[in-house]
Design a protein that fits this description.
- Helix content is 25%, strand content 18%.
- It contains 8 helices and 11 strands.
- Helix 1 crosses helix 3.
- The longest helix has 11 residues.
Length: 213
């Protein structure tokens, strides 16, 4: 495990193997559009998706851009997939897009600090992944058939309960370097729960500010 992981999704030994195991799952094999987090731990997932010809959408840093997602399209990339999958490189080479420019997402891949076998996950605590999923859900870009996966080290899977709020989503698949854990289906938040967001948080994210009722 990365010992300097405070305040971030930890990179982990075995991330390449976890990405390879995810690639064997039917939900991955049928996916043409993948929404993936920009964290280093999921870089092998993004690279593999691009190598296999899948379009990859990544969120802009803190969702602070007017167009909050970056599109990496393997058909138009002028650099190798492994290089394009790096979040810093992607920010330079990807095309910024808004929600109304995106197609339906077949698979969502998120990062986790910890997760249990019920699919409850802990992120960095800022809530950006929850907002991304809420935006996609409200825009009709994901549905009940869109699986959410996370790649983690075995040590990040915990026994027992984890804290959870109404706006948190659960994952459907947990993939380590050794195994795939399929979690029970669980109701997801239907979209943005405005009452859970502070005015400051809404104003800091243009995609939220422009959609506030």
């Amino acid at each position: 495990m990365n010992t300097s992981a405070r305040g971030r999704i930890p990179a982990f030994v075995g991330a390449d193997a976890a990405a390879a195991l995810l690639a064997e799952h039917p939900s991955w094999q049928s996916a043409r559009v993948v929404k993936a987090v920009p964290d280093r731990a999921q870089m092998p997932v993004r690279a593999r998706a691009l190598e296999e010809g899948k379009r990859v959408y990544m969120a802009a840093s803190k969702l602070a851009a007017q167009k909050p997602f970056h599109l990496l399209d393997p058909k138009t990339l002028t650099i190798p997939p492994q290089e394009a999958a790096d979040r810093h490189t992607a920010a330079r080479f990807a095309r910024p897009v808004d929600l109304n420019e995106m197609p339906h997402v077949d698979l969502v891949v998120c990062g986790s600090v910890a997760v249990n076998t019920g699919g409850v996950r802990l992120g960095k605590g800022a809530g950006y992944s929850d907002i991304e999923v809420a935006l996609l859900n409200e825009a009709g870009l994901i549905g009940s058939s869109t699986l959410i996966a996370t790649t983690v080290h075995e040590l990040q899977i915990v026994d027992g309960q984890l804290p959870e709020t109404d706006h948190d989503f659960r994952v459907d698949l947990i993939i380590t370097q050794n195994r795939v854990v399929e979690c029970s289906p669980y109701r997801r938040p239907p979209g943005i729960l405005w009452e859970s967001l502070s005015p400051e948080a809404i104003e800091a994210i243009p995609a939220l500010a422009s959609r506030k009722p």
